[in-house]
Amino acid sequence: MPLNIRTADGLDIGLDISIVERLTATLRGSVLTPDSPGFADACVIWNAMIERRPGLIIRCASTNDVVQAVRFARDHHLLVSVRGGGHNIAGNALSDGGLLIDLSPMKDVRVDADARTARVAPGATLADVDAATQQYNLALPVGINSTTGISGLTLGGGFGWLSRRLGLTIDNLLAAEVVTAAGDVVTASEATNSDLFFGIRGGGGNFGIVTSFEFRVHPVGPELLSGLIVHPLDDAQTVLRFYRDFLATAPDELAGWFVMRKAPPLPFLAPEWHGKEVLVLALCWSGDVEDGQRALQPIRTFGRPLADVIAPHPLAAWQQILDPLLTPGMRNYWKSHDFTGVTDGLIDVLIEHARTIPDPNTELVLVQLGGAVSRVAEEATAYTHRDAQFVLNVHGRWAEAANDDACVGWVRSLFHAAAPFATGGVYVNFLSQDEGERVSAAYGSNYARLVELKNKYDPSNMFRINQNIRPSRYVMPGLPSPAVSTKTID
């Protein structure tokens, strides 16, 4: 019985099962067909709105497995998707009917405490990275949900609580091992294949599959001064104007984000506030704790907060503080904008929409950037919008498909209302599945350079199930691969 699978041209073909068996014999990992035990579980990703079912899954255990998977896809001209943590909002880990190259079994994290570096495999999550680095009181600036995969986060840029002080995740990337569309293994760094190194620092998975990341890590922790201050939404206009002015002179050690949502049943909130609209200030000070206590005093004593739970927390624990609100299996739809500042008009728009949030799991989040992020040149990495001081994530999240129209509609309404205050830029990792037309906006002045890189490294657009940078000239598989420094995998 042949295996039905989809080609890159959108055709469904039958592969003789003996071909799949020969592939399996070359791997340390495993191959799953739709009849295999565990196939359905391997198709589960974070965003439950995405319902796609690949035709074949290769669960990779080594770089060689990835090479064999890419060459197999190339030989048979298959539609390819790549999974790291499976956390991407657009669901780009999966295709319908194609080949899924699954990196999630590759989770190794090795820290060289003396050199202050970490080598991270592509299936590792942020929790894996934090656990390994914090053994030595070292840290890498990563995102805010510990179940996120390091691969997707890094390839899109990567920001979180430490970024104002230490830069984006990509700003701490020293080198990467990459399997190209030709099935070659190359090193990307400032010294070797520097053009590819530029591209993978923010360009997503467009240029190859990263099988190992080498990062610079920094002394941070073991404790951060961090936590939440909760205000009634009715006080949000006054609080946010003070917050905006307070952050304008804040040192890089402070990251100040805010959330508007219906209050979850948090133990430190009075029961009568559960389910009511609130403004939540989320603050993280990554420097000396005593210095942080003094620095945060003005924001902690302003207004009439319902709760203040700012305190020293272990770094790894703080990195997981939002995990209960971001569990997999919910329906998610996002829209995002970049801003150079928070104007009165933007504040008014956010408050107006916060009063009509359609689901208790839906929220809007404003992220503070700047600091070290803005001190890197725009042309240094594919991630280009270094001028953005704030990023808005309109985070629609709900459980039932019956609520799709209401929640998606609310997200789009807020997105459009906030647009007059935005720069036009967007963070590529926040693009949903229907926003392919915004990819060029995500890369701004770097987009043309990235198209040329795509022409060089992936002219047949093998890696297209992503926020795709399309090559300007299509080259059929089988033609000579680009001249890059490669090594052979035995």
Description:
The protein has helices spanning 17-25, 39-42, 63-76, 126-134, 150-156, 163-166, 194-200, 236-248, 289-300, 315-318, 344-354, 404-418, 439-443, 447-457; strands at residues 3-6, 12-15, 30-32, 56-59, 80-83, 99-102, 109-112, 117-120, 138-139, 173-179, 185-189, 209-216, 218-219, 223-232, 254-262, 277-285, 307-308, 311-314, 331-339, 363-368, 390-398, 486-487. With 490 residues, it is of the alpha+beta class. Among the domains are: 3-102, Uridine Diphospho-n-acetylenolpyruvylglucosamine Reductase, domain 2; 223-440, Vanillyl-alcohol Oxidase, Chain A, domain 3. Strands 14, 15, 16, 17, 18, 19, 20 and 21 form an eight-stranded antiparallel β-sheet that branches. The chain is globular, with a radius of gyration of 23 Å. The model is unreliable at 478-484 (pLDDT under 50).
| Helix/sheet category | alpha+beta
Please state roughly what percent of the residues sit in beta strands, choosing from under 5%, 5-15%, 15-25%, 25-35%, 35-45% or over 45%.
15-25%
How many distinct beta strands? Answer: 22
Average pLDDT: 94
Q: What is the subunit arrangement here?
A: single chain
Low-pLDDT parts are 478-484
Distance between the termini: 32 Å
Q: What kind of sheet is the major sheet? A: 8 strands, antiparallel
User: Per CATH, what is the topology of one domain?
Assistant: Vanillyl-alcohol Oxidase, Chain A, domain 3
Q: How many H/I helices?
A: 14
CATH architecture group name of one domain: 3-Layer(aba) Sandwich
CATH class of one domain: Alpha Beta
The share of residues in helices is 25-40%
Shape descriptor: globular
Radius of gyration: 23 Å
